[in-house]
Amino acid sequence: MNRREPLGIAVIGTGRMGADHVRRIDRVINGARVAAVVDVDAERAKAVAAGVDGCTAHTDPAAAMAAADVDAVLIASPGPAHEAALLTAFEHDLPVLCEKPLTPDAASALRVVEAEQALGHRRVQVGFMRRYDAEYVKLKALLSTGRLGRPLMLHNRHRNVASPPFFTSPMLISDSVAHEVDATRWLLGHEITAVTVLRPAPSSGAPEGLRDPQFVVLETDGGALSDVEIFVNCGFGYQVQAEAVCERGTARIGDGHALVTHTAGRWGGTITQDWTERFAQAYDDEIQTWVDATRRGEVTGPSTWDGYAAAAVCEAGIRALENGGRVEVDLAEKPPLYR
Ligand SMILES: NC(=O)c1ccc[n+]([C@@H]2O[C@H](COP(=O)([O-])OP(=O)(O)OC[C@H]3O[C@@H](n4cnc5c(N)ncnc54)[C@H](O)[C@@H]3O)[C@@H](O)[C@H]2O)c1
Ligand SMILES: O[C@H]1[C@H](O)[C@@H](O)[C@H](O)[C@@H](O)[C@H]1O
Questions:
Q1: Residue 6: cis peptide before it, omega within 30 degrees of 0
Q2: What is the pTM of this model?
Q3: CATH-assigned architecture of domain 131-278+310-338
Q4: pLDDT for position 203
Q5: Domain boundaries 7-128+281-302, corresponding CATH code
Q6: What integer is the mean pLDDT of 100-124?
Q7: CB burial of residue 259 (10 Å; 0-12, 13-18, 19+)
Q8: ipTM of this model?
């Protein structure tokens, strides 16, 4: 498809992320418009549609996808609703940007992989936006030059101010560490083969019963280790940091030192408070890249396979969290469509 018209996008789910993507497509992105929004909460869908010229509001994803002016779909409903929306998009053979996680577990993610294979071509980009963040892109580029030698370890820190009320202990892995799982696979070009989850005493700042923080160790088929401190009720800020330790040096991102102040006997800066702030540019670049590729008739970026691989690693991580110890990742064979 080499399009002159702006791409008409249906946004499924108009909560925090979906509404932000609607604003982005409407005001920031070139070559696209929000043609329809969908939410099981009809009032929410209507309120979001009301702010966008020519946008219709729906409660049923299938009705929106069948609309004549819908050319592509952005899925931003909760993870458990993704599989149904993806399969409906495949019925209409529509290009999709699906927010992470692709689906919440490996079996459903594999069903999506199989359904896309049955179509015979890639249709999905998964919303692992770190691949579009300027700092992650620089780190990846540096590692790719080989100047620092072979990466031996990655140290990751992922901290949220507070978790939402529905957050469970396994979701620290499937919803949050999923980002580091993808970043590790992408930065190193390795598959993750085993996961160990260590459980320090929960923070008194975490809701009763939530295992927060957790310390996750990922082993890769290239012999590297990637550790992740996940702490979703740290209380003070949104921090995402990564340090690569290589044979001849280290490289670190995410210190947030863009602006440092010195005043009244102190020095300091500010800490971002959530992902919409920290990754604003990454989301813009992610969606623009998706729109541009879709208008050229191409599919780029993290694939359904990447979404499945992350789900399989997270599933092993959840078993490691529940039973303690180390759990090997059970990964299906990679189909030719994704090689
Ligand atoms: N990439 C990132 O950094 C990032 C950040 C936050 C959230 N997310 C992802 O975005 C997605 C949405 O998260 P959120 O924080 O916006 O959640 P949210 O709870 O704020 O919003 C979800 C919305 O989807 C609606 N919904 C529920 N089931 C639906 C269905 N079957 N069809 C249509 N709408 C439905 C809900 O009514 C709600 O309005 C999740 O997959 C989440 O993991 C990604
Ligand atoms: O769904 C959100 C989102 O993916 C954020 O990027 C992450 O920092 C949060 O931990 C997670 O709950």
A1: no
A2: 0.97
A3: 2-Layer Sandwich (3.30)
A4: 98
A5: 3.40.50.720
A6: 97
A7: exposed
A8: 0.99
